[in-house]
Design a protein that fits this description.
Helices cover 30% and strands 18% of the residues. By secondary structure, the protein is an alpha/beta fold. It folds into 3 domains: 46 residues; 107 residues, 3-Layer(aba) Sandwich (Rossmann fold); 167 residues, Rossmann fold. The strands form 4 sheets. Strands 12-11-10-13-14-15 form a 6-stranded parallel sheet, sandwiched between helices.
């Protein structure tokens, strides 16, 4: 974390933090990369002063006074925000602490708040003057783990539960869908089993390859399922638009609209993504297709089953766009263990188990 003194008025947009602004002459407490980016644009200068408020560390938890005020500055993705929502709820119950959050506005309004978060939202980056009422800051959850890679190798709720001395399993956090979205996104009644599909993740190595998407869909269509396609990127072909058996919601929903639609699915088939986390939080039966993620990652969600690639180097726990071995594309979803016929069979078995159908 760095202190940044703004040298001019600046408006910015960040995919991580959303829309924000810097006011000339104001000092801000921010993540190092953001501070360096602003400095490189002559929008601010880095300062040597220490953080104005102490960071919450493991040693402080035992003596944490009740009603301590803690500001969580959150830079994780949308799926990570669900984990944060569960964590805050448990910490508040155990330690009696009051939490506020500084993050992307959408993550507060459409994820944390529907999960029951009642604290104050601060826009990013927070001015130093806004930090003085707080007893502690909480910024980098990964740094609190003995091995930060454990947050990828294992269930992050298991790891963070050990760090903070709380149980993050089965503590009853729910996502509340506003009634207006349930009404506006209500689907017509159907006798067919509804299956949601999501092929998109933040990193390309976790996303389902475009040349396999239509092939998998073509394996599912003969099963007389009602398919609903979710995600943020359009398909490379027009199959989803041209086939009447597919409802295409790609890049067409807000987070509350997505939640309302997912809640009407019988089964969700998704890569490791926000859609998978939200579906699991809603308690929907979810089959997660994993390439670089380990099966333990979703262990805390009882409704989730994992289908993992058996590629020799998987899971590699990489999350971005490039293969750590330097290959042009991740081969996990192309491995024989993830053939589309196998995935379609997994869907059939999952549905059969859900409804007691004998699969001959």
């Amino acid at each position: 974390m760095k202190l940044l003194l703004a040298t001019k008025d600046v408006n910015f947009f960040s995919p991580v933090f959303g829309v924000g602004s810097l006011e000339k002459g104001t000092a801000y407490f921010t993540f190092g990369k953001f501070a360096r980016d602003m400095a490189s644009q002559d929008a601010g200068i880095l300062m040597d002063e220490h953080a104005p408020v102490p960071f919450l560390c493991r040693d402080a938890l035992g003596d944490l006074p009740k009603n301590s005020r803690i500001l969580l500055i959150h830079s994780g993705g949308y799926g990570d925000t669900i984990t944060v929502g569960i964590l805050i709820n448990c910490l508040r119950k155990k330690y009696g602490a009051d939490f506020d959050v500084c993050c992307h506005r959408d993550k507060h309004d459409f994820i944390l708040k529907p999960m029951g978060f009642e604290g104050t939202w601060l826009s990013f980056p927070p001015p130093v003057g806004r930090l003085h009422p707080y007893d502690y800051l909480l910024t980098d959850l990964a740094a609190m783990a003995e091995d930060p890679m454990d947050l990828l190798r294992r269930s992050p709720l298991d790891v963070l539960g050990e760090v903070f001395g709380v149980s993050l399993r089965n503590e009853g956090v729910q996502y509340r869908i506003p009634s207006e979205y349930r009404i506006s996104m209500g689907l017509p009644s159907s006798k067919r089993i509804r299956v949601g599909l999501n092929f998109d993740a933040m990193g390309r190595v976790k996303s389902y390859p475009g040349d396999l998407q239509d092939l998998l869909i073509s394996r599912l269509l003969p099963l007389n399922l009602e398919l609903h396609l979710f995600g943020q990127r359009t398909l490379p072909s027009g199959l989803a638009e041209s086939n009447g058996g597919i409802h295409n919601h790609v890049n067409r929903t807000t987070i509350p609209e997505l939640a309302a639609l997912l809640d009407q699915m019988d089964l969700v088939l998704s890569v490791d993504s926000f859609v998978a986390h939200l579906s699991a939080l809603l308690g929907k039966q979810t089959l997660v297709l994993l390439s670089t993620t380990g099966e333990e990652y979703f262990r805390h969600y009882p409704a989730v089953s994992a289908c993992s690639s058996r590629l020799t180097c998987a899971p590699c726990f990489h999350v971005n766009d490039t293969c750590p071995l330097g290959r042009a594309n991740c081969g996990a979803f192309y491995h024989e263990s993830m053939q589309t016929d196998i995935l379609a069979s997994r869907v059939i078995r999952k549905i059969s188990g859900m409804y007691g159908i004998k699969n001959g």
